[in-house]
Amino acid sequence: MSTTLGKRRRTYESASVRPVGSGFGVYLDDKPLRTPLGTAITVPTVALAEAVAEEWRQQGTTLALDRCPLTRIAGTALDLITRQRAQVVAELAEYGETELVCHRAERPPALVARQHAVWQPLVDWTLQHFDAPLAVTPGVLPRGQSPAALSALEGAIAVQDDWRLAALAVAVRAAGSLVIGLALGEGRLDSVGAFDAAELDATFQIEAWGEDAEAARRRAGVRADLESAARFLDLLR
User: Fold this and answer.
1) pTM of the model
2) Would you say the C-alpha torsion 79, 82, 87, 88 has a positive or negative sign?
3) E strands, 103-158, in order
């Protein structure tokens, strides 16, 4: 029986990469690493395959799957995206309807200025890069985006291949923003810039009032997810 992502104890000694068809498979000893649905993990580039294998080389006696973010993204591409692609595209497109970078504070002036400095260039880039004219809304009440903008954003998601779409999904959900996720995917932002944009409001509040343990854990999770998505995308290139 091949080793799967669902196992919790280490039963292998080595992790290696082998050419498989037009891609590269990851093997634990002589058995292919498989997703929870039993799909052998074969990825498009040797760099990504080696990085996935390294996650398994670094495991201890008991497997800690939270230390395998690249494996999880690859598994998502193979198990989820291939089977529910339209559903994933639609889910991510919904983020555009209440796009984070389009909802601006009315006060204090320092926050207003920071949001404009960080978020407005992303709104402008979205128009230039995807022909998606997003409307900016002051205050907390949502303002609907135009059908043209939403259609353009959905198109930008739909053209991603399964691998990039899996990484994009991680980035968008972590950031709570389709624009930030797309900017990471297109190289407009790196993971640090994506985190700073996604956490702008929270960072502003922390600077004023401090950070509690729960907020620190949440932000660490956001940072880790964005770093993993960015690395996965880099390894595909």
Assistant:
1) 0.95
2) positive
3) 103-104, 137-138
